[in-house]
Amino acid sequence: MAAGHGGDGGRRERAARRDASLRSGRAALLTSLVVLAVSLAVLVWSVSGPGAALVQWGGGPSSAKATGGTASPGSFAEDGHRGLPGGGAPSGGGTGRPTGEDALVDNPLYATGRLAPLPCPAPDLDVTESASMKALLDTVADCLDHTWATQFARAGIPYDPPQRVFWEVPGTSPCRDYPSSAGAFYCRASKSIYIGTSDVVRKWNGVEDPAVYASLLAHEYSHHVQGESGLLDYYHEQRRNEADRSVQNSWTRKSELQANCMAGAFLGAVRVSFPLGDAERANVLDDAAATADREGSSDDERTHGSADNSVRWMDHGIAKQDPGVCNTWSAADDLVQ
C-alpha cells in the first residue's frame, strides 16, 4: 500500500511537471505572438505611412444604436459649467504654438501622420477596487503621454503632458468641484485631467471593460492636446464672441467630436497590445453613443453631438489613427451636429 501510494505521488509529480512545462510553453508562445503582432503593426505603419486627412466621409455608425444621454459625458471646463468652457485659459501666444484660425483648420499636428503603434498592454481591472482603476488609468495615461509627445515633436510644437488627478476623495479644481455631473473632465486652467476612480464606475453603471475607461481618459486627454496645439485659445476667443447660445454650442460640438476622433486614433494605434478587439471596439462605440446629446435636444442643449456623429468620429479615429482626419473645424455641417 505504501509503495502504491508512493507511485501515485511520483505520477502526480511528473504530471505536475508536465503541466508546468506546458503552461510555460504556452506563456512563451503567447508572449512571442504579442511581440510579433506589435512588430507587424509597426512594420505596416512604417510602410503605409501617414493616413489621408479626410473630413467628409459617408456611412453611419458601425455598431452603436442609442438615443444618447444614458451616462454623463466627460467635458472640459474653465468656468465650472459642464461642456461650456469660458475664460481663463492659458494663452498660447509667444509659446511657439499655432495661433488664430490656422490653429483650428491648418494645425501642424494634422500633418504628422499616423500615431506610432506603441505597446500599451492594459493591466487586469477590478472595478470594485479603486487602486485597480487607478493602475489602469495611470498605465493608459503613460501611453498617452508617450504617444502625443512623439506626435508634437513631429509637428515642431512644444508639449507638456497634463497633470493627473485620479481621485477617491472629493475636492476642488480651478474649474469646478468634484464629483460633478460629468464622469470626467479636463481643466485647462490647471492643465489637469480629473477622474474619480470609484465615481466613474458608478456613473458608468459598473461596466468592466478597460477599453471603455481608456476611451474616456483618451477623450479628456485630447482636450489637453487641443490646448497644447494652440487650438483652444482661438476656440475660446471665437466662442466667447458669440452671443447666441446655439452658435456657441456649435463650436463646443466641434471640439467634443474632435476629442472623440483623437481618442479613437489613440485606441486604434494601441489596439494590438491593449488590446482592442471587436467586442471592445463595440463597447467603446456604444459608450460614444450613450454619452452623446440626447435625441430631440434643442440647439441650446446640444454640446456633444448626435449619437450617430459621436460614434462616427470615434470610429473614424480608430480606423485611421491619424490626427489629420480629426479636423472637425473644416468638416461638413451634417457631420458636426
From TrEMBL:
Transmembrane segments: 27-47
InterPro entries documented for this protein: Uncharacterised_pept_Zn_put (IPR007343)
Compositional bias of kind Basic and acidic residues: 292-305
Any matching Pfam family: Zn_peptidase
Region named Disordered: 59-105, 288-312
Keyword Transmembrane helix: yes
UniProt entry keywords in alphabetical sequence: Membrane, Transmembrane, Transmembrane helix
GO CC, one annotated term: membrane
Main location: membrane
Compositional bias (Gly residues): 83-97
Localization per record: Membrane
Topological relation to the membrane, as annotated: Single-pass membrane protein
Name of the protein in question: Metalloprotease
Phylogenetic placement of the source organism: Bacteria, Bacillati, Actinomycetota, Actinomycetes, Streptosporangiales
